[in-house]
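Can't attach files on this board, so I'm pasting raw text. These are the components:
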Amino acid sequence: MKFGVLVFPGSNCDHDTYNVISEIAHQPVTFLWHDSEDLQNVDAVLVPGGFAYGDYLRTGAIARFSPVMQAVKRFADAGGIVLGICNGFQILTESGLLPGALMRNAGLKYICKQVHLRTETTNSLFTNQLTKGEVLQIPIGHMEGNYYCDAETLHQLESEDRIAFRYCTPKGEITREANPNGSLENIAGILNAGRNVLGMMPHPDRSSEKLLGSADGWKIFSSMVNALATR
Amino acid sequence: MKAHVYVTLKTSVLDPQGQTIQNALRKIGFTGVDGVRQGKYFVLSLAKGLTLEAAKAEVERVAREVLTNPVIEEYTYRIEE
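---
Top answer:
Structure tokens for the assembled complex are below.
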């Protein structure tokens, strides 16, 4: 199975993400330049972190109109697996592939630190190697990670089991103190209705090797590899 | 012809930047300001020969489809002839 990592002008986690797939997952992986609609027959698309197009106007607002995102929309609509990390999550919400929006952090500061996430669902291509309630330690690094959606959308996400991760304490409690950025209901990651698109603010690409402090993020990539192998 | 487009967060959406400005205003003694909402301001220079009606239609599309994220933001605009 082949992975594709999107590269926009301003992407800066593209190589980290590529490295996880090539060096840890040992799977074929290629970079996909923003200016082309050719996805090179990949089986999964990874939208990496960074500052696509300088985050001008709004995070993800310009990236949404890039040629590669038109191809990613068609790919996702046909059931293709798409993971958006950090800026990638922002791009996916702006593109309409995921509901809601990521606003400026409630504390108005850029936050770069380790956080804990509680696994809210194992029913997805990205979380099948996890157990429900499992706590992961994964870092965040963002200025706009404050998830917001209207009440109707939130109800839909909850009733359809589409909240993948919530910020929690090391013991897995969902508290206000464990919420780093003001996200609605401590939401850190959500799935689309088809459950083939995941967006998350924390960085599994920065936590897939013990050397980096935590290998918990690897479980998300290994879930994808597992899902693709059995598809 | 120019279009002046103002984008703000919807009133239903919390605006921490506006709140921070408001808190600062209160601290330094501006008691006459009850609330602050921060936003963005765009000036669009419109192509020559557009009718007012066509200009409005163009500006509304640009504001709706690009300048705002309708999940959290809304806009107003005025055309300067």
